[in-house]
Amino acid sequence: MELVCPAGTPAAFRDAIDAGADAIYCGFRDETNARNFPGLNFSREELAECAAAARAAGVLTLVAINTFMRADNEPLWYGAVDDAAALGADAIIVADLGLLAYTAERHPQLRRHLSVQAGAANAEHICFLAEAYGVRRVVLPRVLTVAEVAAISIRAGRTAHCRLRRCAGATRRAATTSSQ
Question: Is the predicted pLDDT of residue 121 greater than 50, yes or no?
């Protein structure tokens, strides 16, 4: 099992490392982050320090850049991806498909995870993104039933290049039951 923890502040990030997290996700203190609230999130300097501490502890840093680019301000989002890569992020969590394409082209070494905000709710969508842009993890919408998640997991799992993480025991049991 992999324990992925959120961190809204550098102190929470360090606490997650100390608590044994395998990966920690966080976001910048700007509109590229869907959880951009006063008093929370990370400056570039804070992210660099936290990512270095995480790397030293064998913990992955995932940076949420999970809002949609505004037509008049794309450089803010491109810069967030560039900064995340330069500051030591292991992966980014994105919603905007244009930003996903930018990341795949400019930072192929940076793992790409799909945010729930992207709305990927079927195996065809997920497999397309995995094959076209190298998406390695997908956060599914909460409106899906366990049976729908199981069906997506089974169908996506049959595609050679598409890997979908199963994150709930109930999902694994449903998938096993439905395949018998």
Answer: yes
CA distance 165 to 70: 30
Q: Is the dihedral of CA 106, 117, 13, 3 positive or negative?
A: negative
4-118: CATH topology: TIM Barrel (3.20.20)
Q: Per-residue pLDDT averaged across 38-42, rounded?
A: 93
Q: For the chain, how many residues are written?
A: 180
**Residue 10 CA: distances (Å) to CA of 21, 79, 82, 92, 138:** 14, 21, 20, 18, 25
pLDDT at residue 64 greater than cutoff 60: yes
> For residue 23, what is the enclosing H or E element?
strand 23-27
Task: Write down the residue that tokens 């990341």 correspond to.
Answer: 103
- Single-letter residue type at 66: N
Indicate the domain borders of the chain.
4-118
Residue 159's pLDDT is 53
Enter the tokens of residue 116: 């729930």
Task: Round the CA-based radius of gyration of the chain to a whole number and report it.
Answer: 16
